[in-house]
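Handout, page 2. Input:
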Amino acid sequence: MQRAHLFVTLSFLLAAAIGACSKPAGDTTPPDDTTTAPPSDGGTPPEGGEPAEGTDPAAEQKAAEEAAAAAAAEKKAAADAQIAKGQELYGANCAGCHGPSGEGKKGKGPKVVGEGALTLDPPKKAKLRKGVQFNTAKDVADFVVANMPPKKGGSLKPEEYFAILAFDLSANGIALAEPVTADNAANIPLRSAEAAPPAEGAAPAGGAPATAPAPEKK
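Output:
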């Protein structure tokens, strides 16, 4: 009887020991995954927060405006230089027929500065410009390159033709914000030249004198 009781007791102790060994070691409650970590430095700020440190919209806007103003001033300076060069070329190649101030010479060439210059339709007595309308600076450029100087059309360099054109446009009161080129000539209308001719003896736009230099003697 005592032996059976001892057997039962040993069996119970053995079962308890096996249960204790089967329990995982270090059994602890897992951490709460709902905790949100703070954003790292330089990350996107939360909605409604302040912009990241180092950005200043007002300063960026000012810098952009200053850059645009500098670019515009550079283009204007280049236009003024082109006008001045065109003045010299006009005196050497055009003044003999069109007059030192662009007033024209009877029997030689029509006026190219002032009222009646660069008209939409050609003058009735025009010899070369027949059926050619001047709507934009490109129309003038195309005609001049093909026909001027008389019997020597195309004898000047392209940049020289456009410089003379820039001088003529300026002398007629058309302000140029950038040099005249084959790419932008079609965007320069001429009607303002007819509507507001410069006063006699007044300096044309762009700082060029009203009277072009006399042609060089060869």
